[in-house]
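Below sits the subject:

***
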Amino acid sequence: MTHVIESPRADDAASLGPLQLKVWLQTYPCADAGIDETWIREHRGASATAEGIAQWREFIEATKTQPDQLFCRVVRSGTEIVGFLCGRRDEVVTLGPMYLLDEAQGRGVGGRLMDEFLTWAGCAPMRLWVTDYNERAIRFYQRYGFKATGERELWRGKLPNMRMVRHATSSGNPD
């Protein structure tokens, strides 16, 4: 199936919140960290509620009025959204969230998303948080020049995340 990457439409908000929850349920369960479906639904379930969908709609609209500060692309497989990447520009560029359903991974879609994001971000320094047991994501970000800083956080007191950065470049390519 062909995957199309494009800017989201306001009505895509209804898909993004539930998609975010679905990806979390596929990606983050970890017995060692005490993270199971119940914990994920408790802490990410709001993304699939009317309030979460409204927040997505606001963000999508803001990307249209502030394209230099806000970035968002969705991945469509037919009519279904199977992934997305968002980011923002402040003093540095922050990448995230970036999610693809399992069925869309391993097909070059993540790389295409990242290429669009890096083009948007230009030579600016970048940062992101990644779950420290999500080794596939860590390797993916490393391929694009991101390096772990040693900074860590426990999101909601449980999910172990680590900071990765990509330093400013002169060409858009990593150091």
Strands lie at 3-6, 70-77, 80-89, 93-100, 126-131, 147-155, 159-166.
